[in-house]
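Hey,
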Amino acid sequence: MTVEDTTPPSIPEHRDQFAEQDFSGGARVTYDPEVTAQDAVDPTPTTMCDPESGTEFLLEPEPSSTVSCTAIDDSGNRSALMQFTVTVLRGPVPDAPIIAVKPPAVTNATSAHFEFSTMEGISSVRCRLYDPNHPDGPFADCLGSQDYTGLTEGPHLFQIRVMNGIGTVSEASYSWTVDLTKPGTVTDFRVRARPGSVTLRWVPPIDADVDRVRIQRQRVGTAIWKTIAERDAATYTDRAVANDVRYRYGIVSIDPAGNVSDPAFATGRPSRLSTPEYNATTRPPVLVDWTSVRKATYYNLQVWRNGRKILSIWPSRSRYRVPSSWEFKGKRYSISRQRHVLYVWPGFGSKAAVKYGRLVGSTSFFGA
């Protein structure tokens, strides 16, 4: 008598399984418990699962996968299909690195220095510089700081990527622009000198990225320039000046990157003696006008030429017209094309008292 085995093996239900991510893409999963089959005749039926135990299960495109298992005994009987689910649990993501030192958002520097820090548990730190000229620049190992030189004009992106032991990644990045183009120069730069002050006015350049202007002052006859203001307006009044001193002013425009334009220059000379303008050429009679002095009863106006006084007059008002010609100390003088120097002092009380105050001002002119 021959007994034929016609009973298929059976596979007990397997619980759904969860696995912690242990590499960058997912986890290698060994089924727990191992999938085994039972059979009435065959003590060790063959069990087959798809995917098999020890397979790498990926997080993408879905973290959950279905495992299908069957068993077959020595008689060729096949069990019913048994299925369970394996789900990969995404592992912890490392904290993003912190970029502590970086270049300004817009700069004219062609080098860049970065300093950064990472948290514990990091297995690798890699950096790269992205710019339009090197769009496929690779990541390279870095630690703590990174320097770049020879940067070209345009936008740049610094990226830092950290990875922990299971391969999960975090990134930080910083973008900035290298600007090497200097802005335009201000136009129509002019000054208006008054007693104790000089007012500067100008027309800003049309460049959209001009941030401010820098104003410097030089005392004519010296080599020292002093920065006196940085402004985003189109006017400035300098009150830290002395009367009857000539000043030269220089002004440049500056963009956010720190690029500086070519300078524009103008000269001003504050004085209480306003007319004629310093070193002006004028036709006689020459109008001399000055700021009146409180309680002054008269003024002494003197004209000098070639180091010699050629006129001394005592007008009662703060204005006088020097005629074309006059007589002084028995000699006849007239306005010539040479340089004439004017001085005015205030007088108090009667002329006989000879009581003068401090110099009101001085100027010079040339006859036409």
